[in-house]
Amino acid sequence: MSRDAARQLNPLLPGYNFNLYLVAGLTPIEQDGPLDFHIDRPGGMKGCILNLTVAGSGRVHDGEHRFDCHEGDLLLFPAGVPHYYGRAPQAERWHHRWVYFRPRAFWASWLRWPTAPGGQVGRLPLTDPALREEMAQLFADIDATHRGGRRTSQELALNLVERLLIRCHEEQPGSDARPLDSRIQTACQLLTDQLARDLSLEQVAAEVCLSPSRLAHLFREQIGVNLLRWREDQRIILAKHMLQSTATPVSAIAARVGYDDALYFSRVFRKRVGVAPTEFRRSHAEAADPWIEVDGDAR
């Protein structure tokens, strides 16, 4: 195999292209080793990256600032934020676990991390050894699960990412641990139970005894996106599951998730997922190698 071909098959090296919503791994950088170079993505990535230092130190450039991350430091690079980082000059190594993922719509409030003034990279130091161990195990579980080879490996891994984000949110200074308003919970359940119906904002508001404007405000405040976007997200999640785990025709799946026009459903699916429903089903049926990307290497 040529050197260029090998680089394409290794997500720790530049030139590796993603094709999934989630990829995870461990990058063991040693001084003067083959991985001892800086990652430079001026445009960031379409998804987010969580990065946990497990040994040594790394140096991260965040806008006009730079900082070193040490064992137990957990970082969040939001979508579209420039990446420029590598081993800290004074360190002999930088070993870090990472997860690249496309966030679900309702994760928005969990992705607001403290940053340095003028910076965009979130940072959460884990000072408690037990908490470090818990987080490191979650990263390892996500990595193992997404490589599991099951038809639902990606969804199971995303569930673990959700758990990781919730734990991080709980540990953020001043985090708001209040549960969702019961009326928003009812609205979400109503939309989920009747996913195939195009319930209007007014209809949902009447069911939960709120005015449409108050429901719209409260929903966005607590969920992070508007009600219609959240419903579309749930439709796409269900459609992906059905495409992965059943032989149901695409037209029937479209109807099941609320689209009478299968062609329109395919356009929405392609816009949200990046491929057409038939291509998505085929790629999973062929048990494609999970080490694939969409926007560049995820080191």
From TrEMBL:
The keyword DNA-binding applies. Pfam families: AraC_binding, HTH_18. The gene is araC. It comes from Sphaerotilus sulfidivorans. GO terms for molecular function: DNA-binding transcription factor activity; sequence-specific DNA binding. The keyword DNA-binding applies. Residues 185-283 form the HTH araC/xylS-type domain. Keywords: Activator, DNA-binding, Transcription, Transcription regulation. InterPro entries: AraC-bd, AraC_XylS_family_regulators, Homeodomain-like_sf, HTH-like, HTH_AraC, HTH_AraC-typ_CS, Tscrpt_reg_AraC-type_HTH. PANTHER family: HTH-TYPE TRANSCRIPTIONAL ACTIVATOR RHAS-RELATED. This is AraC family transcriptional regulator of arabinose operon.
